[in-house]
Specification:
about 280 residues; mainly alpha
Length: about 280
């Protein structure tokens, strides 16, 4: 696509380049947020377990799974939560075209690991939510449940299309798999960002089943997936108006993620990481 020119011959901003820059910025912000989340998981779950201070994990964990008296359910919980740190540290590398081109083996094996652990996380998460009963409310768990049901579907098509070397289809479903697998992470961003924007709770409840809680639990993965589809559509189309349309939606997604990462980092992750290190050392 050619760069647009104004009347005096000065080049204007290209819609395609603007879209690419915003998407790159969005990926970088998400990467930073993912690494913060990985540090959070390792600090409040892995390190206390290594140092034999499970009581610290019980006091810092916002969920119910770490506090169960059942050793079997506790094991399922840790099998569910600990691999999330590994996925958070490595998953986004799948989205870098330069890494895909220069290190194709890493891309394949890292992708297989990410999809496998993501599928395992979805299944263990559904079990913990409805089998073990680790949920604040039935209504408030519907968003994360639908998220967990969609993950195996997206993973299946991402894996199948890769085997069949249909890489355009694979890229589409791999990105949707990435968004879905990180749905709970995104929900944290959306929820904390919502608190910051509203200067406190607004339509939220302690059981995570207020109207805002329910809306955010679905929007945290459905909105990024919809934005991804708009971007795919714009990349297939040469019309600049469509690309600027995609720029708008990509910018909205990037802004939400930025606000969410800052909010979750300052309100949830960093305070608990600090408490974990103070408790251990």
């Amino acid at each position: 696509m050619q760069v647009l020119m104004n009347k005096v011959g000065v080049p204007l901003i290209s819609a395609e380049k603007t879209l690419n820059h915003i998407v790159k910025y969005w990926v970088v912000v998400a990467l930073l947020g993912q690494w913060m989340f990985a540090a959070y998981i390792l600090s409040i779950y892995a390190l206390p377990t290594i140092f034999g201070n499970s009581a610290l994990t019980f006091s810092l964990s916002p969920g119910q799974g770490a506090n169960t008296e059942s050793s079997a359910e506790s094991l399922v919980f840790f099998v569910h939560i600990i691999p999330a740190a590994l996925m958070a540290m490595s998953g986004l590398f799948q989205l870098f075209p330069s890494i895909r081109k220069k290190y194709p083996k890493f891309h394949r094996y890292n992708g297989r690991m990410f999809l496998t652990l993501g599928l395992s996380g979805a299944l263990t998460g559904l079990y913990l939510t409805w089998g073990a009963g680790f949920r604040f409310s039935d209504l408030g768990s519907l968003g994360v449940t639908f998220n967990g049901i969609l993950i195996p579907i997206a993973v299946y098509f991402a894996w199948k299309s890769a085997i069949e070397k249909k890489f355009t289809i694979h890229r589409r479903f791999a990105i949707h798999s990435f968004i879905l697998i990180n749905g709970v992470w995104s929900f944290r961003l959306y929820l904390m960002g919502w608190f910051v924007v509203n200067q406190g709770a607004n339509g939220n409840s302690a059981s995570i089943d207020g109207p805002a809680d329910i809306a955010l639990s679905f929007a945290s993965y459905l909105l990024p997936m919809a934005i991804a589809e708009v971007i795919f559509w714009a990349q297939r189309n040469r019309h600049s108006g469509i690309k600027w349309f995609a720029v708008t939606f990509a910018a909205i997604g990037a802004i939400i993620t930025t606000v969410g990462v800052i909010a979750a980092g300052t309100m949830m992750w960093f305070p608990r990481i600090t408490q974990a290190f103070e408790g251990l050392f």
